[in-house]
C-alpha cells in the first residue's frame, strides 16, 4: 500500500474488469492525497475520498488543464495522444467563469426532461431493432458491437443532425480524440483534421438550411450579449458532444449489463420488478470501477485538501470511481444495491463542469435496460467475468466486447 513517499501509476487496473483496484481502499484510509505518475511521466495528485473529490469538482475556480496552463500534467506520452489527452479538448469553449456558464446554459436548453422523454420511443425502437439483428445472427453475440456501440451513435447523430451512416467514422475519430497511448500523435492529428473538416462542413450546411437539431437550435439562438455562437464554438460543441455522447455511453451499456449479469440474482430481480430499472442504472454508474482516468483539474491558487496544502499549478486527478465507493458517503459501498436512495454518486462530476449530457446518458441506459429485459429475459454472459476484455489506451474505460447468450 502506498504512503506519501511512494508513487502510484495511473491508470490503476482492478483484478478483474468489474472490480476496483485494491489500492483505492487503502488510499482512502491512509493517503487521500496521493502522488501519481501518468503515462506521460508527468506527476499529479490523486484524490480518492468522496468529500475531497466533490469539493474540487464543485469549485468554480478550477477547470481541466489546457495547453495554456504552465506545468499542467499531461496524460499522454510525448508524441502520442489525442486532443483530450493533451489538454486541448476545450478548443473554443470558455472553461471558467460567466462565459463558461453562458455556454452551458445555451447547450443545456436542449437536454431538458421533456425532450429526453420525447426521445425515448425512438430510442426503444432502435434498441429493439438492434437486438433483433443480434438474435438473427445467432449465439453467442457481442452485446457491445450489436447494441452498446450503435445505439448511442444513432441517438447523438440524430441530436446533432448528422447522418447515422457515418457512425464508423465517428468511432475512429472518437478513439483518436480520447487516445492516450493507442495512436501516435501524427495519427491522432490526421484524425482530428478529418473530424474538424467534416463537422465544419456540417455546420456550414446547417447554417444554410437549419432543422430542429441541437446545432440548428444554437445557430438560431441569440444570447443575452446579442450574439449567437461563433463557428469555432459550434465546432467545439458539436465535436465534444459527439465524442462524449457516444464513447462513454457505449462503454457504459456493456459495463452495466456485465455488472447485472455477473450475479444472476440481480437480473432476476429486475425481471420480477422492472420499476427497479432507474435504481439499477444509478447503481451501475456508481459502481463502475473501469471509468478511466478520472477528471483532471488545474489548481490556479493554493488549496487545502484533506489537511494538505496543494500549491497553485498542481494538477489534480479526481478519482470519482474511488469516491463512489467511499464508506464515509455510502453504506455497503462495494455492494450493488438496486434500491439505493439517495445515490449521490460523482460519475457525472459535480458543480459547474458536471456532465451536460447526463440526462441523455441516463435515458439511454434506462431505455436499453428496459428493452433488454423485455426481449432477452434469458440473457447471460458467455464468458466468465474475469475474461471480459478491457479497453486499453483511452481516457475512458470499458470493455472491448461483451459476449452473451440468451
From TrEMBL:
<keyword id="KW-0349">Heme</keyword>
<dbReference type="InterPro" id="IPR002397">
    <property type="entry name" value="Cyt_P450_B"/>
</dbReference>
<feature type="region of interest" description="Disordered">
    <location>
        <begin position="75"/>
        <end position="101"/>
    </location>
</feature>
<feature type="region of interest" description="Disordered">
    <location>
        <begin position="1"/>
        <end position="23"/>
    </location>
</feature>
<dbReference type="Pfam" id="PF00067">
    <property type="entry name" value="p450"/>
</dbReference>
<dbReference type="InterPro" id="IPR001128">
    <property type="entry name" value="Cyt_P450"/>
</dbReference>
<keyword id="KW-0503">Monooxygenase</keyword>
<keyword id="KW-0408">Iron</keyword>
<dbReference type="InterPro" id="IPR017972">
    <property type="entry name" value="Cyt_P450_CS"/>
</dbReference>
<dbReference type="InterPro" id="IPR036396">
    <property type="entry name" value="Cyt_P450_sf"/>
</dbReference>
<keyword id="KW-0560">Oxidoreductase</keyword>
<protein>
    <submittedName>
        <fullName>Cytochrome P450</fullName>
    </submittedName>
</protein>
<keyword id="KW-0479">Metal-binding</keyword>
<comment type="similarity">
    <text>Belongs to the cytochrome P450 family.</text>
</comment>
Amino acid at each position: 500500500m502506498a504512503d506519501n513517499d511512494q508513487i502510484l501509476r495511473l491508470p490503476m487496473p482492478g483484478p478483474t474488469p468489474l472490480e476496483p483496484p485494491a489500492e483505492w481502499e487503502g488510499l482512502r484510509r491512509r493517503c487521500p492525497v496521493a502522488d501519481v505518475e501518468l503515462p506521460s511521466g508527468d506527476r499529479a495528485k490523486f484524490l480518492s475520498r468522496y468529500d475531497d473529490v466533490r469539493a474540487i469538482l464543485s469549485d468554480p475556480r478550477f477547470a481541466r488543464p489546457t495547453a495554456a496552463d504552465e506545468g499542467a500534467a499531461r496524460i499522454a506520452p510525448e508524441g502520442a495522444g489525442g486532443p483530450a489527452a493533451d489538454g486541448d479538448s476545450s478548443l473554443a469553449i470558455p472553461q471558467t467563469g460567466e462565459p463558461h456558464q453562458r455556454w452551458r446554459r445555451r447547450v443545456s436548453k436542449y437536454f431538458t426532461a421533456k425532450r429526453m422523454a420525447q426521445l425515448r420511443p425512438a430510442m426503444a425502437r432502435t434498441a429493439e431493432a438492434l437486438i433483433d439483428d443480434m438474435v438473427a445472427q445467432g449465439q453467442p453475440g457481442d452485446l457491445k458491437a450489436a447494441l452498446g456501440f450503435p445505439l448511442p451513435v444513432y441517438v447523438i447523430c440524430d441530436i446533432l443532425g448528422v447522418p447515422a451512416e457515418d457512425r464508423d467514422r465517428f468511432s475512429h475519430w472518437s478513439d483518436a480524440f480520447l487516445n492516450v497511448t493507442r495512436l501516435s500523435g501524427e495519427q491522432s492529428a490526421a484524425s482530428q483534421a478529418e473530424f474538424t473538416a467534416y463537422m465544419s462542413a456540417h455546420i456550414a450546411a446547417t447554417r444554410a438550411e437549419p432543422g430542429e437539431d441541437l446545432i440548428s437550435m444554437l445557430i438560431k439562438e441569440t444570447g443575452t450579449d446579442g450574439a449567437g455562437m461563433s463557428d469555432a464554438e459550434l465546432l467545439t460543441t458539436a465535436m465534444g458532444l459527439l465524442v462524449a455522447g457516444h464513447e462513454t455511453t457505449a462503454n457504459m451499456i456493456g459495463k452495466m449489463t456485465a455488472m447485472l449479469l455477473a450475479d444472476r440474482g440481480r437480473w432476476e430481480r429486475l425481471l420480477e420488478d422492472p420499476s427497479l430499472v432507474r435504481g439499477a442504472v444509478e447503481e451501475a454508474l456508481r459502481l463502475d470501477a473501469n471509468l478511466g482516468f478520472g477528471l483532471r483539474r488545474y489548481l490556479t491558487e493554493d488549496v487545502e485538501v484533506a489537511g494538505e496544502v496543494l500549491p497553485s499549478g498542481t494538477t489534480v486527478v479526481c478519482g470519482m470511481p474511488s469516491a463512489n465507493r467511499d464508506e464515509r458517503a455510502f453504506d455497503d459501498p462495494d455492494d450493488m444495491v438496486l434500491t439505493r436512495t439517495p445515490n449521490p454518486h460523482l460519475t457525472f462530476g459535480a458543480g459547474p463542469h458536471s456532465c451536460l449530457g447526463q440526462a441523455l446518458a441516463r435515458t439511454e441506459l434506462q431505455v436499453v435496460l428496459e428493452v433488454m429485459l423485455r426481449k432477452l429475459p434469458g440473457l447471460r454472459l458467455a464468458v466468465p467475468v474475469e475474461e471480459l476484455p478491457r479497453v486499453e489506451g483511452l481516457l475512458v474505460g470499458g470493455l472491448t466486447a461483451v459476449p452473451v447468450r440468451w
